[in-house]
Amino acid sequence: MVEVPGVTEAAGDAEKLIAEAETLSSRLARVREAVGRVILGQEEVVEQALVTLLAGGHMLLVGVPGLGKTKLVETLGTVMGLDARRVQFTPDLMPSDILGSEVLEEGEGGRRSFRFLRGPVFCQLLMADEINRASPRTQSALLQAMQERRVAVGGEVLDLPAPFHVLATQNPIEQEGTYPLPEAQLDRFLLEIEIGYPDEAAERAMLLATTGAREARAEAALTAAELIAAQSLIRRLPVGEAVLDAILRLVRGARPDTATLPAVRQHLAWGPGPRAAQALMLATRARAVLDGRLSPSVEDVIALAEPVLRHRMALGFAARADGVRLSEVIGALKADLA
To answer: Which N-terminal stretch is annotated as signal sequence (predicted)?
Structure first.
């Protein structure tokens, strides 16, 4: 047998990638099981949350009070082995309460100097609870951190720990005293995950599991270093031309100026930018590995279309007046792909 230079190496690299992906898939099955022991009846929410972390992104959890948003974030921090911090966003919260501040210290001989005290943003998993309750000035303090994984304070640029993820929560019904998130910040969230009410069977199991003498506790199933390695592996997974075409068709079809669907042209004021396509590329790969597959499919694109697009699109005034919902427009886009 004659070995062709380059071909043998490529085959070896492919076999190594397959082996690594299979190992990661089995490990992620344990992660999902560990989260599922604590978070009951929210399988799709858990899947989308894990997809976000595996893709290296940030997520926005939207749901009414009492559905376990805070519990989910705490559980993910423990299961993933991440250094987690929680900040309760309030109208009087200042940027320095998140980033940190400089304090004046007096040393030996009366010499004074400034020392920077790091804020809660210097962690691996930051929970921004009820993020829309803080002022726009405070919300903007997270923009650079979310996009660049570093912050500029006191004339210095400081790197944040790796990995770094922001998991924000938002209450969709109590809007008094809140500040809507600006489009620039919404675009930084890889997925917007809506948490709905559990079904009757899940709620029954939840009652029995959480009101007894013992309550299930989260246990570590991964480390921060393993999560970083998983994120790197996911970026190396191949994406077929059919999936790439579906992503481009979906994202470009959601822009009123390039759309072919009447529902998009008539109802949308503006559509998603290129960051939505990037989010879909990463998220579909992560979902495939999470399901034990080596490459994503068009079904992954359809499944993730709504959480990727809904916070990157806006209905026009007439559409809102007519009671049109974004889910209906996204549904038309998904049907066009199928």
So the answer is: none
H-type alpha helices, the chain: 7-36, 43-54, 69-79, 95-99, 136-148, 183-186, 200-210, 224-236, 241-253, 262-267, 274-290, 298-309, 317-321, 326-337
Are 102 and 154 spatial neighbours (Cβ–Cβ below 8 Å)?
yes
Nearest to 279 by CA among 261, 296, 257: 296
| Contact between residue 58 and residue 168 where contact means Cβ atoms under 8 Å apart | yes
Q: Give the residue extent of every domain in the chain.
A: 238-338
pLDDT in tens, the chain (338 residues): 333 344 444 556 788 888 888 888 889 999 998 988 888 888 899 999 999 999 999 999 888 777 778 888 889 999 999 988 899 988 888 888 898 887 777 777 667 777 778 889 999 999 998 888 888 888 888 888 888 888 887 777 889 998 999 999 887 766 666 777 888 888 899 999 988 888 888 888 888 877 776 777 888 889 999 999 999 999 999 899 999 999 999 999 999 988 888 888 888 988 899 999 999 999 999 999 999 888 899 999 999 999 999 999 988 898 888 888 989 999 999 998 87
Instruction: Tally DSSP H helices, then E strands, for the chain.
Output: 14, 11
Sheet architecture: strand order including 125-129: 84-88, 125-129, 165-170, 58-62, 189-194
Tokens of 26: 């089995």
CA distance 302 to 323: 24
What architecture is the 238-338 domain classified under in CATH? Orthogonal Bundle (1.10)
Secondary structure class of 218 (helix, strand, coil): coil
SS3 content of the chain, % helix, strand, coil (to 5): 50, 15, 35
Give the integer Cα–Cα distance in Å for 57 and 86.
18
Structure tokens at 121: 């943003």
